[in-house]
Structure formats: structure tokens, C-alpha cells
Amino acid sequence: MTTLASVGWSVSPLPIVLAAAGLALFASGFRRLRARAPRHARWWRAALFCAAVALALVAAISPLHAAGEQDLLSAHMLEHVIIGDLVPAALMVSLQGPLLAFVVPAVVIAGVTRRPRLRAALGRLVMPAGAVAIWLTSLAMWHIPAVYDAAATSFPLHLLEHASFMLSGILVWFVLVDTARRRKTSTGVRLAVALTLFTAGQFLATTLVLAAHPIYPHYATGSGLLGLSPLADQDAAGLVMMGEQMLTLGLFAVFAVRRHLDESLARPSADPLVRQVLGRPSP
């Protein structure tokens, strides 16, 4: 039986260069903000950012990437949920608040600020409707069998596919986490966004699990990697997406509701009976 370890690493310079650039920008911004306001640049943020970069490299150059390119749909799906969901979520949480403005290069911020049309366009992209529309379009487009197979055999298309997953993931998690802390999107709207993402993802995952035959021709004749048949591999791909969404979006829902309750109870107008039920003292 062929294993992931026997597939080998796919050492491409582009992911390594991008990772190094991201770490350098973060280190510079983190250092400057920590010198001015340490409470906004705690070490757990640095650890989470580094973990996100490491996870992105695992998806991009490890045997997981090579297996996904060859004949393991479940490996390819795991690669996609890492770069399109787990990594963006970790990045947006780590950059939340003032740190975002310190990490993004000043020349980029100035360039956007000086161009009202560009600023307005970017503003629409990070609104719930815009971010969700881009995420849904990316998900639907790249999972059309002909497009999915073409991306698996073409480096430029594969690169574009991964870039679109990463960017659309950053947009929706920017909204969910409220990375810029603009507080313009209510908890209810953010929960609705999470539910929309979950529903769309589960529809795709369920389709993969319930299909009676392999959907993607590129993965229909596997070489027995990990001992999986093409249909079992497809089932595993669907289960990977199901599990990952339950983990990330489920955790988001728990933290979002908890934070909303904490903020509501912090207001002087909070109902004393509600405080008593939740075990919170009155102000």
C-alpha cells in the first residue's frame, strides 16, 4: 500500500517566498505595536500567525499536496479546507484589531486611502453580501468536475484555484471575526453568514458522500494510495469537508454567541433576572 510519506515533498519556491514575506511583515508590525501598546500585541497572536503560516506550507509543499495533485481526492480536499478556511480563520483572528494596520504596509494603506473608488470597491468586498457572494462563487466554480480536473492537471489553474480559495476565505473570515473591529456587522448577521457557508459546504460534502460513482474523472482511477478505492476516497473527501466546517464554524458560533452575551450583560440596562440565571452579578 502506498503511503503519503512515500509520495514526497513538493518544494516550490513560491509558497516559501510568500510565507517568508508574510512572517517578515508580521514581525515588523508586531514589534512596533508591542512597543507602543503591548495589550494589542500579545504573544498568542504571534504564535497563532506562525501556526497559520506553517499550516499553509503543509498544504502547499508537503506530501499532502503531492498526493492531492496525483490521485487522492481526500488529500486535495484537505488541502483546500486548510488554505481556504483554517489558515484564513487563524490569520484573521491573529490580526484582529490595531495589529492589522501595523502589519499591512503603509504604502498599501496610503494607496487605498488616496483612491476613493478602490477604497469603495474594497469596502464592498468586506461587507457580508460581497464576501459571501465571492466565497460561494469560488466554491461552486472550482468544484465543477471539468474545472476541478483541469486545475488538477494545470499548474497555472491550480495556482489560481488555491489563490481564489485563500482570498475568498480571508474575506468571509474578515467579516466573521470582524478583524478591523469596525463593529458594523451585528452578531446575528455574522451568524447568518456562518450558516450560509455551512449550508453550502455541507451540500457539496453530502453530494460527494452520497454519489454512487466518482464525480471527478481525474480521481476515478486511483493508484491505491492509502488503500482507498476511488469511491471510498470520494466519501473521505466529503467527510473531511463536513468535519472541518463543523469544527471551525461551530467554534465561531460558540464564541460569537458567548461574546454577544458578555457584551449584553456588561450594559447597565441588562435585565437583572437574566443576570441571575447566567450567574452574573448586577453592576
Characterization of the model:
The protein has one domain (4-277). 74% of the residues lie in helices and 0% in strands. The protein contains 13 helices and no strands. The chain has helices at 13-36, 43-61, 63-70, 73-94, 99-103, 106-113, 116-125, 128-142, 145-153, 155-177, 187-210, 230-266, 272-277. α2 packs parallel to α3, α2 (43-61) packs antiparallel against α4 (73-94) and α4 crosses α10. It is globular. The mean pLDDT is 86.
The main β sheet shows up as: none
The total tally of domains equals 1
Query: What oligomeric state do these chains adopt?
Result: single chain
Structural class: mainly alpha
Q: Which percent range describes the beta-strand content?
A: under 5%
Helix-strand topology string: HHHHHHHHHHHHH
Key words describing this protein structure:
283 residues; mainly alpha; globular
Short description:
This protein is an all-alpha fold. Helix content is 74%, strand content 0%.
Layout: helices, strands, pairs:
Layout (H helix, E strand, L loop, with lengths): L12 H24 L6 H19 L1 H8 L2 H22 L4 H5 L2 H8 L2 H10 L2 H15 L2 H9 L1 H23 L9 H24 L19 H37 L5 H6 L6
